[in-house]
């Protein structure tokens, strides 16, 4: 019976232990083993392949370490990771309760991974692992920019890059893309072809940098001059209108998938495109390349700090401080009484509680600057925490004395 799941913390081990328990209750003798691809237990702790695993799981705080249980039981140093080492005492105790004794002396004993014995060229694996660490670093930067979070993952991976002796410029496609971006002032992409040639793409009014890079690479593989347009502007215009006018997109530039759709539209409209079939046949030469794309697939580049896109990203993750009510067109401003002017009852302590509770409901403009981040106004007709939401002032709420 194979138990698999898409990620950590999904209950694979719990499912297996539950099955072992029920089998034991029914007199069935069953065992348990696990396949962990990484870290590879019989590679050194500082091997780039194992360090690449740490970079890949930087969001999980996984740390490679020497298995202390295996070292104590067998006198051999093996590599494991912190989560398996931390949970092994609990797992061993469960085995003792269910089976009478634990069949494993260490977390490494549970594994059946023999990937380390399949390495035929260690130098190639080391280089590939270093490239993977750099890729994970850039992916963490993209995630932190889009999610507007603190750079914890990227800093952790940067330490791993220093540990293996590489930098973020050690990918062949990164310096050319950065040079084009600096020269044009816009995002740029670069791709490395199987023969080692590097092709770049810049951002224009019609195409994103990834789309331009894709077309330039196809022209180079097909032997077409660089000044020849594979896509006529007349074929790009209908797609841009569909995106901006019908689908509500703010970015009129074509993405990579839209670039691949555009040639078919040209053929349907009967336009002449003599270079079309040849680049399509040479597209197989783009399989498995190395590339540097600031927008991850051409879905637009990351917003710059201070730009409208960056502000929208921040608003999605930070609730702004409430501001003064701005009534909509044709609606007078809502009159909200101050809590101190509300009628008081005979119970002074009860009135104090009512006043404090209603202060959250009736917030005057001069008090709004003292509201903490994340505070939400209730029925005051103010701005919604979600950007772009238009609301009219709500009706005034009357405080009722329920004595």
Summed up:
The strands form two sheets. Strands 4-3-5 form a three-stranded antiparallel sheet, with helices on both faces. A two-stranded antiparallel ribbon has the order 1-2. It has 403 residues and is mainly alpha-helical.
Explained architecture:
With 403 residues, this protein is mostly helical. 42% of the residues lie in helices and 5% in strands. It is built from 14 helices and five strands. The protein has a three-stranded antiparallel β-sheet, with helices on both faces. A two-stranded antiparallel ribbon has the order 1-2. α2 runs parallel beside α6, α2 runs antiparallel to α7 and α6 packs antiparallel against α7. About 27% of the residues have low confidence.
